[in-house]
């Protein structure tokens, strides 16, 4: 596998993909000499995927701006010890619009948007003699999906942002913001079109490209965020027919051995051998597991015992042996003191983190696979959407539509994978909407912990204040002064963007 660089009127492509960049290298290709063949179109699409591998997107891990796999640091699930990476300073209200985190994320997202716009415009113009209609539709569907993914992040994290849907000339670059609704409407429209255009699957050699399931899954996530519960039911109902299943092993799913699981709707792909990053999110830190993403005590305590009851009421819980008789997802996700966390060198986790816990989910359990012993990147893919999330999104939509009977089997299916008891066995039947809401929200927390979705959930539920209270109660040194109200739930537009473009206005809460 080789890196690709397309320079000139196109964009620069570089990265470490297993699928997206498995093509012959090109150099010095201008717009006039490109977009002539189907292979050109494939290379152009690969360049959009490459943006997902930016450090600030899905590969960033240690000693730099935090990537999206670290977004559980925004909230009550995990602690960002290296506060300069972004989430830590945000959590302690010690960051402003000039922060590199906000600027790097904004730049990367709009880089992806620009690449998608170029691909969409160029592929649409390609004649039938250059590309088959089926290939054109599939590639356009991928470009629309990826543009929607970038814009969903912009809308959720920044609110009102410029909506750019074509290739800009320099004189067109000084744009104003569009409303959240305008951006949201476009994302939903494009995802519906993408779902219609994309195939349900690809040949094995093309694994990793967006499918119909990926588009429907992202659509479900964004509709849920917008509280369009009927829309979520419609989208997830279509997903249920596409053959996705829960991976038999929860633990294996978050390793390289689980990368081709039928549970995965969409993942960002990485390969150790061709990585040009100093590290990716799966890197191993020799002194302790993932020093900059440490599970919070309140998160660890929220995992139930194997009888399905909280540790505060279960007779199975023993504070002297806190990981025994617990939901298996806990020991699949968190290292406790005296656990072996680097198996090849028999390295013991001493509990030497600020929270006393270590992150296990997604983190490699060996010190080296290529002779590099420190900050070794690893080749672990990052799952963006998976089937368990789909089931829980559907359960939440049914719950909010007061169709309560249909919530039970969905949550039970997720619990059964890890041999946790059904709702009826523990909490009972005929539960109120409020009682079921607590169950569904708890299930999302423990099932999806450390997958970068906690901030998204807390913001949607209007539950950020309660999360900050739990963080405060954990008494982690230096973690306790938080932004209040809406400022805790939205990022500022980067100051350098405001300085360069007088037509942009700052988010009101950050003025």
UniProtKB/TrEMBL annotation:
Membrane-spanning segments: none
Matches recorded under InterPro entries: SusD-like_N, SusD_RagB_dom, TPR-like_helical_dom_sf
Location in or out of the cell: Cell outer membrane
Limits of the SusD-like N-terminal domain: 94-224
Keywords in alphabetical order: Cell outer membrane, Membrane, Signal
Residue ranges constituting the RagB/SusD domain according to the UniProt record: 262-510
Pfam families on file: SusD-like_3, SusD_RagB
Protein family according to the UniProt entry: Belongs to the SusD family.
Name this polypeptide is given: RagB/SusD family nutrient uptake outer membrane protein
Native source species: Flavihumibacter stibioxidans
